[in-house]
Specification:
The structure holds two protein chains of two kinds. Chain A is α/β, with parallel strands linked by helices. Helix content of chain A is 35%, strand content 15%. In chain A, strand 6, helix 7 and strand 7 form a beta-alpha-beta unit. Chain A is globular, with a radius of gyration of 19 Å. Chain B is mostly beta strands. In chain B, 10% of the residues lie in helices and 34% in strands. Chain B has two helices and eleven strands; from the N terminus they run E-H-E-E-H-E-E-E-E-E-E-E-E. A five-stranded antiparallel sheet of chain B has the order 2-3-1-4-5, covered by helices on one side. Chain B has a four-stranded antiparallel sheet with strand order 6-8-9-10, with no helix packed on it. Chain B has a two-stranded antiparallel ribbon with strand order 7-11. Chain B is elongated, with a radius of gyration of 23 Å. Classes of the chains: A alpha/beta, B mainly beta. Chains A and B meet through helix 4 and helix 7 of A and loops of B.
Chain lengths: 295, 170
């Protein structure tokens, strides 16, 4: 996410808004997206492939490393050197941190990081920022709470980078063992972003403009017992929202497990499904801008 | 009764001058000076000189130093440092002075300063892609004192006590 300047972020958001107003802009006619998902995905992979199709292009790739030559021991770099010959833009999700960066260094094709281990998920952040701006009209002067797995949550890590360009105030809410890593506190410190830390989300809920809920990342825990201690740390229900601002918006990168109850879905605060839908125009914008198909 | 004369005091001799702290001079090679006291053996490790060598090596440890109080020095005959070795010295003994010696005289003198991008070390994150693929590590220097680096790939912060050097090209 730190590859994006504030201007880059705003450019993506503006472009996404323009593309959302066009039904099927054929900006990538005849082009191919290489879709390399070494880790499971629903929203991200489908929205990238759908975005590419709506731009007039197509996608090739795999949704699971077990159906690729990775099972024969092929290295990531060799995989990239092959796929770059078949595709014009690459999108990669991998379980190891830094994989997308390494892939980007290995090819002249644009490479999009769709998630690398517990590190980053930059396109999700662009979807999140687009959604916040769409719903609340701005990205500055907001009180934003980020709740849940701040240690392993790559969407959180990227969101911290993204929000560091704007002057909103953050409240970081997590169990003690899942606090935001120091490297991201360092980002907030260097960007002079005001932030607070707490373990209790209900106490300060009336203050928030945005409540960004995240799943406890079971797959990142080395110790199953540690996961069990925190898996239900936060469970938002409609009852909590009686004290919330009428304009509070609840976001979640999904999938959710227990952290948002079903009775929240029907409230005017729930924005996570709209957020998921915004993946299409935002990813269209990312693909088209990187491929030079739009300026 | 004769008055006893006071016992003659034995004149106090001045304490002998400490022997000058001097190492064997080299004619062609490298002198690594201002090594923090006790770190000379780590420097030898970086230079690949641990199990024995044919080179003439002169090592001084815990020598007095106006700059550091105490210091180590390593002198290596017939050797100029590689870029890898310089980077690693900058990591483990930042600020050491490197003197290139030719014909018994100092030909060039500089400090082993940490560059903006460092390699020659392992990422401490076991899930970093560089620990699983055949690719050298790469780190950005965020600050020199206290030392703080960040892995260019997994973006983790690396502090001085987490540094694990890779084998140098000598």
């Amino acid at each position: 996410m730190q590859d994006f300047s504030k201007e880059d972020i705003l450019k993506v958001l503006t472009t996404a808004k323009k593309l959302s107003q066009r039904s099927s802009p054929k900006l990538m006619q005849g082009k191919i997206l290489g879709s390399l998902f070494f880790e499971p995905s629903t929203r991200t992979r489908l929205s990238f492939e759908s975005a590419m199709a709506k731009l007039g292009g197509s996608a090739v790739g795999f949704a699971d490393a077990s159906v690729s030559s990775v099972t024969k021991g092929e290295s990531l770099l060799d995989t990239i050197h092959m796929v770059e010959r078949y595709a014009d833009v690459l999108v990669i999700r991998h379980s190891q941190e830094g994989a997308a960066r390494l892939a980007a260094e290995a090819t002249a094709r644009p490479v999009i990081n769709a998630g690398d281990g517990a590190n980053q998920h930059p396109t999700q952040t662009l979807v999140d920022l687009y959604t916040i701006q769409q719903l609340l009209g701005r990205l500055d002067r907001l009180k934003i709470a980020i709740v849940g797995d701040l240690k392993y949550g790559r969407t959180v890590h990227s969101l911290v980078h993204g929000l560091s360009h704007f002057s909103s105030e953050l409240t970081l809410i997590s169990p003690e063992t899942l606090k935001l890593p120091n490297s991201y506190r360092e980002v907030l410190y260097r960007s002079r972003i005001r932030y607070h830390e707490s373990e209790d989300f209900a106490q300060h809920l009336p203050e928030f403009d945005v409540l960004y809920m995240t799943r406890i990342q079971k797959e990142r825990f080395a110790d199953a017992a540690e996961y069990e201690e925190v898996r239900n740390a936060y469970m938002l229900t409609a009852a909590h929202l009686k004290r919330a601002k009428p304009t509070l918006k609840i976001l979640h990168p999904l999938p959710r497990v227990t952290e948002i109850a079903g009775d929240v879905d029907g409230t005017p605060h729930a924005a996570y499904f709209q957020q998921a839908g915004n993946g299409i125009p935002v990813r269209q914008a990312i693909i088209a801008l990187l491929a030079g198909a739009i300026t | 009764m004769a008055k006893r004369k006071p016992a003659r005091k034995t004149p106090q001799r001045a304490a002998p001058e400490p022997a000058p702290q001097k190492l064997y001079d080299i004619r062609e090679g490298t002198v690594i000076d201002h090594i923090p006291a006790g770190q000379a053996l780590r420097v030898l490790q970086v230079l690949g000189i641990t199990d024995g060598t044919d080179r003439l090596i002169s090592v001084g440890m815990n020598l007095s130093s106006r700059k550091l109080g105490k210091k180590d020095i390593v002198k290596v005959e017939g050797k100029l440092l590689t870029k890898d070795e310089l980077n690693q010295l900058a990591l483990i003994t930042p600020g050491v002075s490197i003197n290139q010696i030719s014909n018994g005289l100092v030909k060039e003198k500089f400090s082993a300063d940490l560059p903006a991008v460092v390699s020659s070390m392992l990422c401490p994150n076991p899930n970093c892609i560089t620990r699983h693929q055949v690719t050298p590590g790469k780190f950005h220097t965020l600050q020199k004192k206290p030392l703080l680096l960040t892995c260019a790939y997994c973006e983790r912060l690396v502090e001085a006590d987490q540094i694990a050097l890779t084998e140098c090209v000598h």
